[in-house]
């Protein structure tokens, strides 16, 4: 089923991760000119100072691309905007999911040794998927940090005319509805909208084109080398200080807060 159709059903209340039954949607303006539609009972943070605090405590440095933090019962979503230009999708057929996973596991092992926190990838919940009609790529995987409860990390990349919005959901595995993972990806993507004339399909000849394609961005989000666009994508990741995948900030946040509580 196309993600646009799924998102429409989600908006109609057939399924939704944004709000409980009967809740009304609230529109939140984003710095990139787009909007986030969330339930009026959800927590949405767009204040720059607070976002900097979140990124500093979770990543070690301020992240200027983090433009919103969205939370409701059981899950959190980080919204990052990258103005890198129009992302082409013609590299997707080059993506080998098995090689991607093996490289990711190898990278996680190396990072475990470097940081002293065991990072154990467990499985794909949803393998990397591209919906060209919706201009969205997404994946979800389960990972465990040390003895912590395993987490699901779902990354949804909503492509636009001038770049892309990366919406990263982090949730405990025990409460994640695996059977509805695709619907959740669609609901997350459907909650974000670009500004006027800024959607993927508003592209015009002469617009900036990104140096990395959709598959390269997915690989980079996993910290995996892929194709000629890897160096560019790796620089984006280095700037953000993610060191294995975007679930890391959530576990570090919990770990850092726990350490502070013990010191208090």
Give a written overview of the molecule.
This protein is of the alpha+beta class. The protein has one domain (3-263): Protein Transport Mog1p, Chain A, CATH 3.40.1000.10. It is built from seven helices and ten strands. It has helices at 3-11, 48-59, 97-115, 181-191, 214-221, 230-240, 248-263; strands at residues 25-29, 35-39, 43-45, 66-72, 75-82, 119-131, 136-145, 151-159, 164-172, 192-193. Strands 3-4-5-9-8-7-6 form a seven-stranded antiparallel sheet, sandwiched between helices. A three-stranded antiparallel sheet has the order 1-2-10. Helix 1 packs across helix 4.
In short:
The protein is an alpha+beta fold. It has 7 helices and 10 strands.
Question: Features of this protein?
Answer:
264 residues, alpha+beta, Protein Transport Mog1p, Chain A, seven-stranded antiparallel beta sheet, three-stranded antiparallel beta sheet, 10 strands
Helicity range: 25-40%
Number of strands: 10
Number of domain modules: 1
Q: What is the second-level CATH architecture?
A: 3-Layer(aba) Sandwich
Global outline: globular
CATH superfamily: Mog1/PsbP, alpha/beta/alpha sandwich
| Poorly predicted ranges | 4-22, 228-264
Report mean pLDDT, rounded to a whole number: 79
Rg computed from alpha carbons, rounded to a whole number of angstroms: 18 Å
| Number of continuous helical runs | 7
Q: Give the ordered list of helices and strands.
A: HEEEHEEHEEEEHEHHH
Kindly report the oligomeric state of this protein. single chain
Span from first to last CA? 51 Å
Query: What strand order characterises the main sheet?
Result: 3-4-5-9-8-7-6
Structural class: alpha+beta
The first-level CATH class is given as Alpha Beta
Main sheet characteristics? 7 strands, antiparallel
Strand content: 25-35%
